[in-house]
């Protein structure tokens, strides 16, 4: 079975890869926009800081869902996977350190002093390091998860796990995570989402969540 066929055979894995692509897409957009700001004002630095906080919040919540629900389900089927996943823990420590640094540099860039520009330049360098490590981390993790999903679960079991993940995600989180996932994505993928989620989530997404996210993102980029 090819990787593409594996992705198509269940909702859970499709959703897993969708959010990874969304993380990459949104981080690239944030870095590109940040680099376009040659001498950002205090107000602009604050907007970029708020944008970064949103992106990191979504990434962090995704990781918590993996650690608390998805991966333990894999470990029940194959206990040996735990040691493999633990091999990625070192990445988490480095990423967490970079997150702290990014927040610190952006906070300094919001202060009215002569060091603002230097702090902002350090933010740009650190964000690039974060993105480089994050993208490599996601790629390594996906190789493990793709293999585990293909070998440990039937399509029905994988779909059931996907539904469990969806139901375990608080509505407040879905309100930002879902439009984050589909922002800048292929419209055909978004249409497929409409076909597999409960009607009330589709209604909330189309009527409210997507519009609020678009407005929020436009505000960060203004």
Entry summary:
This protein has helices at 3-8, 11-36, 42-77, 81-86, 89-109, 116-152, 155-168, 171-182, 187-196, 199-221.
Give an overview in words.
- The chain is mostly helical.
- The chain has a single domain, classed as Up-down Bundle (Four Helix Bundle (Hemerythrin (Met), subunit A)).
- It is built from ten helices and no strands.
- It is globular, with a radius of gyration of 19 Å.
- The N and C termini lie far apart (45 Å).
Core attributes:
Four Helix Bundle (Hemerythrin (Met), subunit A); 222 residues; single chain; globular
CATH architecture: Up-down Bundle
- Supply Rg: 19 Å
The best one-word shape is: globular
Structural class designation: mainly alpha
Main beta sheet, described?
none
Report strand %.
Answer: under 5%
How many helices? The count is 10
The helix content, as a percent range, equals over 70%
CATH class reads Mainly Alpha
**Any idea how many domains?**
1
What is the CA–CA distance across the termini? 45 Å
**CATH topology (fold) name:** Four Helix Bundle (Hemerythrin (Met), subunit A)
Could you give the topology of this structure?
Blueprint: H1 3-8, H2 11-36, H3 42-77, H4 81-86, H5 89-109, H6 116-152, H7 155-168, H8 171-182, H9 187-196, H10 199-221
